[in-house]
TrEMBL record:
Keyword Membrane: no
Keyword GTP-binding in annotation: no
Molecular-function annotations in GO: DNA helicase activity; hydrolase activity
Highest taxon, organism lineage: Bacteria
Keywords of the record: ATP-binding, Helicase, Hydrolase, Nucleotide-binding
Protein name: Helicase IV
Phylogenetic placement of the source organism: Bacteria, Bacillati, Bacillota, Bacilli, Lactobacillales
Annotated EC: 3.6.4.12
InterPro entries: P-loop_NTPase
Gene3D superfamilies in UniProt: P-loop containing nucleotide triphosphate hydrolases
Length: 339
């Protein structure tokens, strides 16, 4: 490869991981490095690749693909294409296993666009069965972990699978690429952890219930695009006016009025959407309630409550560690129900 404006032609080797003999002097580049996109996106000739410093121009004079097994070069292909057909055919004709393998050596141009996309907030991958959607998504996870190392960890990535068998099938791809596995679960497992106290109606129970005409019409209405659009408009409208709240009361007395809660809700930047605005309001209210707890700690009723604690209530507040009096008072106050 020859950079624009340079007379020097430099060989670039790409592999599963980078390898250098001294700092910033790479003998082999990680397949996820910016310069490696040339291998997947372009053939021989003028190319452009993106780096942290901006787009770089270069000329590729030769593309050669190596197949190495047990430290020996088995096959060499010269090609003008992004990924040579022979290399792809060899991969497809290999023995199948019970585990999905990485596709670093056979990533196609369309797949590479999916893998390296960092501009889309939401990225939908659509294709026929067996077209490489899952493989591309897993390679994308490895790429994002590489690009945002220090900001993103595998524990922050969740893969929702249709069943546990599928989890077992794909669980070796990231370790093969040198990354720790991400969190893998079915949506049912996720929902059962987040909503442990809710009983979900099964499809059979739903059909056996046979909802009446009005209920069926309501269900149908909620599934329409018009209903969705109305709800979106309503949610946006709540950023200006119309939010309905109840005051927060403690021991029958109003601690934070409804008007004060509304004032807090509408005090945030207009760019806050409904979810962010509700979350920010909640955080502000929690801080105000913590301040109220501190002010109540010396009240007479707190001392009376502590004196009247049963052994079970006392043990529940103490837990496994000793607490001082102020901690017990705080536990006594916060254990009271806020209405």
């Amino acid at each position: 490869m020859q950079d624009a404006g340079s007379d020097v032609t430099e060989p670039i080797y790409i592999g599963l991981a980078s390898f250098s003999d001294e700092p910033d002097h790479f003998l082999i580049y990680d397949w996820r490095a910016p310069i490696s996109s040339i291998y997947y996106d372009d053939g021989v000739g003028e190319v452009t690749y993106t780096t942290p410093a901006g787009d770089q121009q270069a000329t590729v004079h030769l593309k050669r693909q190596f197949q190495i097994e047990d430290g020996k070069i088995e096959t060499i292909f010269d090609t003008d294409e992004a990924i040579g057909d022979q290399m792809l055919l060899n991969a497809l004709s290999g023995e199948s296993t019970t585990k999905m393998q990485s596709i670093v050596t056979t990533i196609q141009r369309e797949q590479n666009k999916i893998i390296r996309n960092t501009s889309a907030d939401l990225l939908f991958v659509q294709g026929a069965a067996g077209s490489g959607k899952t493989s591309a998504v897993l390679q994308r996870v490895a790429y994002l972990l590489y690009r945002y190392r220090g900001q993103l960890t595998s524990g922050q990535v969740v893969m929702f699978s249709p069943n546990q068998l599928f989890n077992d099938y794909i669980d070796q791809v990231l370790p093969e690429l040198g990354e720790q596995n991400m969190v893998q679960m079915t949506y049912y497992q996720y929902a059962s952890r987040r909503l442990p106290r809710f009983e979900l109606e099964t499809l059979q129970e739903r059909f056996e219930a046979q909802p009446g005409t009005v209920q069926k019409e309501l269900i149908d209405l909620k599934g329409t695009l018009d209903y969705f659009n109305v709800m979106q408009t309503y949610a946006k409208g709540l950023n200006q006016k119309g939010i309905q709240v109840r005051p927060i009361k403690f021991r029958g007395e109003e601690v934070i009025s409804a008007d004060r809660i509304k004032e807090i809700y509408y005090s945030f930047n207009e760019n806050y959407n409904l979810g962010n605005r509700l979350f920010a309001t909640k955080e502000r209210l929690l801080k105000m309630l913590q301040s109220h707890v501190r002010s109540e700690m010396n009240a007479e009723w707190v001392d009376e409550q502590i004196e009247n604690l049963s052994k079970e209530e006392y043990d529940s507040m103490m837990g496994d560690q000793e607490k001082n009096l102020s901690q017990i008072k705080k536990s006594t106050i916060t254990s009271r129900k806020l209405l």
